[in-house]
Automatic annotation (TrEMBL):
It is a multi-pass membrane protein. This is Phosphate transport system permease protein PstA. It comes from the Bacteria. Keywords: Cell membrane, Membrane, Transmembrane, Transmembrane helix, Transport. The lineage of its organism: Bacteria, Pseudomonadati, Pseudomonadota, Gammaproteobacteria, Alteromonadales. The chain crosses the membrane at residues 12-39, 59-90, 102-122, 134-156, 192-213, 250-276. PANTHER family: PHOSPHATE TRANSPORT SYSTEM PERMEASE PROTEIN PSTA-RELATED. One of its GO terms (cellular component) is plasma membrane.
Length: 283
């Protein structure tokens, strides 16, 4: 190995190490700040009591309920539609066709569109045109539309990782196109699909702007999906910007949000392991 290549590798290694250390320090500082600021205020009462005084006192039970309802609607709509669309684009449309390139172009544009634009669109279409008003359903459907481009793109990339020779082998054995997708392509791409679900849900959980225009920000417990509700991210934003003396609840709410994200990641991981066991997928 020449000296120049050795120096280049050493330079890249040092650069990556420095970047990793900086990111680790920033993440550690953020985690310590959140934990020290909210852990002492985190209690069973905080999780199961209603907000009081605009969120300055009390708990976040209604906020958690609204968040889980919005997230459930988002996942229930985005996953089947996104999976079906990604199968259609990846398996049935010629990858080199103009239509395929146009679809990828549109997906890239939608994936980079600011969330507040989706919020305004969701407000006009779901809240006004369809008459849903500020509701859990409007917020969940808007989030589903927002994460669809990310989910579809991620699933397509997962399908690309399945080698074409496996598809040809399935056809040679007499499997139909649909059967090979169901029995071969989806199981082989399941790891990427489940990871894409996690990434999509994490983006939805962190969303604030889109929900301000669709789900609203009332603190009462929703009795149905047609009621308005406040997600945890919106709650954190409102307490930080509009409520003085609520810093302890802000940090405690942030801890709960992180716990929900980690819990969902664990659930998705367990579902993936169960799916692999049931289908006998080689990973």
């Amino acid at each position: 190995m020449s000296i120049s290549k050795l120096n280049l590798k050493l330079h890249n290694y040092m650069l990556c190490s420095a970047a990793s250390i900086v990111c680790l320090i920033m993440f550690s500082h953020m985690a310590v700040s959140i934990i020290t600021g909210g852990l002492e205020h985190l209690s069973p009462g905080f999780l199961f009591e209603m907000p009081e005084m605009g969120g300055r006192e009390g708990g976040i039970f209604s906020i958690i309920v609204s968040t889980l309802l919005i997230l459930s609607i988002c996942v229930a709509v985005a996953v089947p539609i996104g999976l079906g669309a990604s199968i259609l684009i990846s398996e049935y449309i010629n990858k080199n066709s103009k239509l395929s390139k146009f679809i990828y172009f549109i997906l890239d544009i939608l994936a980079s569109t600011p969330s507040i634009v989706f919020g305004l669109m969701g407000n006009q279409f779901f809240c006004v045109e369809l008459g849903m008003g500020f509701s859990i359903l409007s917020g969940g459907l808007t989030l589903a539309l927002m994460v669809l481009p990310l989910f579809i793109t991620g699933c397509i990339e997962s399908f690309k990782d399945v080698e074409d020779r496996l598809r040809y082998s399935a056809c040679a054995l007499g499997l139909s196109k649909l059967a090979s997708i169901k029995k071969l392509v989806i199981p082989m791409a399941s790891k990427g699909i489940f990871l894409t679900i996690v990434l999509s849900v994490c983006r939805a959980l962190a969303e604030t702007a889109a929900l301000l225009y669709t789900a609203g920000y009332v603190t009462r417990t929703p009795e149905s999906v047609m009621d308005s509700g406040r997600s945890i991210s919106v709650h954190i934003f409102d307490l930080s910007m509009n409520v003085s003396g609520a810093d302890h609840n802000v940090y405690a709410s942030a801890i709960v949000l992180i716990a929900i994200v980690m819990s969902f990641n664990f659930v998705i991981y367990m579902l993936h392991m169960l799916y692999i066991k049931m289908e006998g997928v080689m990973q």
